[in-house]
Structure to design on (305 residues):
């Protein structure tokens, strides 16, 4: 009987404040969808870092005859065989180095032609103008500075370049976008909480006579407050389900179908459906707890019977 009464009060409350209930549902849905999207963006950045950092190299470019004539770094002349042997020996002694591969001038010229064969500059280049280099794969990509400090400025070395710096700019942009999404989510969350508090206050005010009678006949405070808290929780749960639908539909139509980013951007390792599905229970839990707690604290202050 008590459960039936609580459920009937929830139904009455939701219908009585239909416009505000709808606003609560929409704001909760949008804020939690942004919350879930931000979590997925964070997972995407982490996945991309693991995917790309595992493939990047540190490159040690060696001086050639052309560089010796034009680059002050190579003022002592082109790299010698002894200098190359010493560089390889020193690299193999370093614990941070996983593998070392050599790219000759002919190989560098071939790779350049493959990538930039249509460039007007390609026709004027010759193999002897290309730079020899060593490509070093590190056990930890964060240890680039160890290589840089050991070989920059050494005789025969023109420069030490880290591909990680290029990727860091990309990841910095993605993290910035993620923080912007979190900021919008926080704003929507505040709006949702304000709507929940106002909805509970209006509902409590409209039923102040009923709650007063319940108090007079000995009903407990929790029993009186339960319908209002449940109303907020139900509205939030509906918004949570909508947020889950937004995430699933968004992932489906942007990555797998519709925009088909997974096939168009094959270089990006997108997070899988398992990452999406693991976020759904968290969103649903937040959609219930957030409105229920907001309703509870709003009633403590504004429900006077």
């Amino acid at each position: 009987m008590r459960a039936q009464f609580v459920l009937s009060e929830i139904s009455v409350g939701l219908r009585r404040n239909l416009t505000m209930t709808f606003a609560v549902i929409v704001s909760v849905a949008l804020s939690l969808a942004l919350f879930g999207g931000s979590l997925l963006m964070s997972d995407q950045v982490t996945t991309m870092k693991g995917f790309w950092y595992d493939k990047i190299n540190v490159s040690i470019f060696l001086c050639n005859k052309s560089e010796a004539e034009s680059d002050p770094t190579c003022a002592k002349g082109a790299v010698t065989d002894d200098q190359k042997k010493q560089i390889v020996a020193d690299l193999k002694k370093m614990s941070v180095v996983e593998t070392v591969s050599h790219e000759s001038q002919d190989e560098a010229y071939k790779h350049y032609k493959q990538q930039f064969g249509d460039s007007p500059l390609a026709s004027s280049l010759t193999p002897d103008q290309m730079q020899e280099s060593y490509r070093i794969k590190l056990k930890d990509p964060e240890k680039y500075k160890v290589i840089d400090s050991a070989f920059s400025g050494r005789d025969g070395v023109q420069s030490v370049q880290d591909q990680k710096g290029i990727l860091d700019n990309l990841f910095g942009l993605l993290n910035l976008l993620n923080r912007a999404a979190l900021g919008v989510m926080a704003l929507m969350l505040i709006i949702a909480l304000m709507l929940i508090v106002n909805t509970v206050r209006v509902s409590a005010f409209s039923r102040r006579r009923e709650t007063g009678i319940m108090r007079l006949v000995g009903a407990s405070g929790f029993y009186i407050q339960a319908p209002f808290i449940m109303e907020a929780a139900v509205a939030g749960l509906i918004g949570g389900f909508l947020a889950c639908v937004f995430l699933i539909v968004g992932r489906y139509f942007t990555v797998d179908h519709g925009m088909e980013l997974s096939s168009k951007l094959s270089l990006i390792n997108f997070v899988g459906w398992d990452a999406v599905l693991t976020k759904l229970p968290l969103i649903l839990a937040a959609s219930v707890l957030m409105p229920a707690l907001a309703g509870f604290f709003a009633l403590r202050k504004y429900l006077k019977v």
